[in-house]
């Protein structure tokens, strides 16, 4: 049984609670379970739709469509589909271009992730050469969906320390001021590895660079914006409401709700 600290006052403990409660990314838990229940194709299409609008409800509905119908659903929904905050700029001509490049890249959405090879550097190259609006954040999302949701192992994250998204890079500068970001990131990865923290949702390997990057974002919003363990679980559950039977079932596939105040952060 995993024992979690109720008072969190360092990054390793923050990451331990973030991962084992499921709050680091509750969607991965749900997709992993949905894949077992509804199959590889459905789970893959859900992940592809998340790369477009980053909204669980929209992705859940889109995933029920196959082949050309999947892309048509995303295009017909373009004007009205809600966006997650990370895709708030996925609008206008730039968003349309991004969606068009995704369809051109993989007309069969079920094969979308088969066009990537299993390293962060290779995913980055493909995103930069073949897709539009797939910067550092969504390059990592591609890796996460492959490795944590679809069973396509990412063998190496070499180079991530020099290409971190804005928020985790800023978190490192606050957490370890004066230390170059690549060096500090490697230090945190080594520290987390030494603690034996496992990667959700399957807990089949040690947490690594991808999980450190995610928890750095959470650490920063918790320290400076009043975020709390369980807030992302609640947010992602709410985004599924009103999107049909499968969306309702996915709510139950997410980690349990964590009451606010269960953990005290002194960061």
Overview of the structural elements:
The chain contains 13 helices and two strands. The chain is 57% helix and 1% strand. It has one domain (7-265). The chain is mostly helical. Strands 1-2 form a two-stranded parallel ribbon. The protein is globular and about 50 Å long. The mean pLDDT is 97. The protein has helices at 11-20, 26-38, 40-53, 56-62, 67-76, 92-105, 120-130, 136-149, 166-175, 181-194, 209-225, 231-240, 245-253; strands at 7-8, 264-265.
What is the element layout, followed by pairings?
Blueprint: E1 7-8, H1 11-20, H2 26-38, H3 40-53, H4 56-62, H5 67-76, H6 92-105, H7 120-130, H8 136-149, H9 166-175, H10 181-194, H11 209-225, H12 231-240, H13 245-253, E2 264-265
Parallel strand pairs: 1-2
Helix pairs in contact: 1-11, 2-3, 2-8, 2-13, 3-4, 3-8, 4-12, 7-8, 9-11, 12-13
H/E topology pattern: EHHHHHHHHHHHHHE
The tally of helices reads: 13
- What is the spatial order of strands in the main beta sheet? 1-2
> How far do the termini sit from each other?
26 Å
Radius of gyration: 18 Å
Strand % is under 5%
**Quantity of strands, as a count:** 2
| Average pLDDT score | 97
Supply the number of structural domains: 1
Largest sheet: 2 strands, parallel
What structural class do you assign from the helix and strand content?
mainly alpha
Low-pLDDT regions: none
What characteristic shape results from the CA principal axes?
Answer: globular
* Helix residue percentage: 55-70%
Give a quick rundown of the structure.
By secondary structure, the protein is an all-alpha fold. Helix content is 57%, strand content 1%.
């Amino acid at each position: 049984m995993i024992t979690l600290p109720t008072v969190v006052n360092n990054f390793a403990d923050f990451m331990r609670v973030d991962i084992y409660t499921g709050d680091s990314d509750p969607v991965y838990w749900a997709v992993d379970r949905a894949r077992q229940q509804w199959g590889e194709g459905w789970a893959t299409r859900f992940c592809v739709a998340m790369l477009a609008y980053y909204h669980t409800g929209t992705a859940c509905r889109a995933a029920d469509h196959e082949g050309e119908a999947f892309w048509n659903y995303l295009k017909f929904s373009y004007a009205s589909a809600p966006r997650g905050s990370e895709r708030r700029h996925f609008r206008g001509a730039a968003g349309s271009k991004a969606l068009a490049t995704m369809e051109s890249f993989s007309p069969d959405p079920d094969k979308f992730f088969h066009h990537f090879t299993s390293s962060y550097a290779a995913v980055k190259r493909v995103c930069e050469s073949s897709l539009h609006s797939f910067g550092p954040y969504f390059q990592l999302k591609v890796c996460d969906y492959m490795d944590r949701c679809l069973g396509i192992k990412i063998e190496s994250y070499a180079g991530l320390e020099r290409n971190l998204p804005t928020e985790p890079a800023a978190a490192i500068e606050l957490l370890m001021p004066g230390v170059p970001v690549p060096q500090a990131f490697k230090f945190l990865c080594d520290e987390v590895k030494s603690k034996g923290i496992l990667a959700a949702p399957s807990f089949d390997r040690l947490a690594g660079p991808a999980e450190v990057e995610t928890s750095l974002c959470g650490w920063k919003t918790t320290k400076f914006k009043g975020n709390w363990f369980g807030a992302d679980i609640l947010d992602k559950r709410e985004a599924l409401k009103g999107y049909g039977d499968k969306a309702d079932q996915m709510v139950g596939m997410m980690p349990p709700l964590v009451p606010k105040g269960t953990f005290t952060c002194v960061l």
